[in-house]
Amino acid sequence: MTEAEEQTLRAELSALVEEHRDLDSAIMALVRTGPADQLQLTRLKKRKLQLKDQIARVENELLPNIIA
Fold first, then answer.
1. pLDDT tens string 13-37
2. How far apart are CA 31 and CA 33, in angstroms?
């Protein structure tokens, strides 16, 4: 992996982590406001899970392939 590719992946990872954190805050705020719109809450949680999968994929790409 070239240094440019690694920098691109790290930037992507940073953006995904930030969006995941923002969604977490949005979900908590929606829950705290009382009776929440369940459809919106479900969509936010689904997007958060998708982001978690994307974060794991990028992190795996960044880890070197070392056979122990």
1. 999 999 999 999 999 999 998 787 8
2. 6
Task: Please report, as a single letter, which amino acid is at residue 5.
Answer: E
The rounded distance, in Å, linking the Cα atoms of 8 and 25 is 26
What global pTM score does this model have?
0.85
> DSSP state, 33?
T
Q: Which amino acid is at 64?
A: P
* Three-class secondary structure assignment of the chain: CCHHHHHHHHHHHHHHHHHHHHHHHHHHHHHHCCCCCHHHHHHHHHHHHHHHHHHHHHHHHHCCCCCC
pLDDT tens for each residue of 37-51: 899 999 999 999 999
The residue type of 13 is L
